[in-house]
Amino acid sequence: MVGFLRVHAEEEVNVRSLYPTPGHSNTLPTKQTTMATQEYRIVSAEDSDIHDEPHIEGSRVTVRDIHARVETRGLRPQRVAERFNLDVANVYEALAYYHNNPEEMARIENRHEQAKTEAKRRSSLQPPDN
Length: 130
Description:
single chain; alpha+beta; three-stranded antiparallel β-sheet; disordered N terminus
């Protein structure tokens, strides 16, 4: 199942200019706020079969990997999109998901750190002494 990230955009609309009332002056603006909803397809961690991490639907690219490349390494979103054969909007969607779900992403980061620590502990390879 795909988890949807919803983004809402507010837009002010002059109602009188859209629906003029016969016999009434349209000089006083009446504003109404409408909400537009757009769904982005990010598979949530609980629904993901890729390391139990959120990822872009239809790809094996994780939200964590997108975040690391753009915000840690400093690559441009367009460059990351080209490398993974994604639309640049997918990169921004992944970044939005990362920042809108800080607790989930912190749990994932923590799990990766624990796995790295355990792998180092079990490894028989040691860095050379200098």
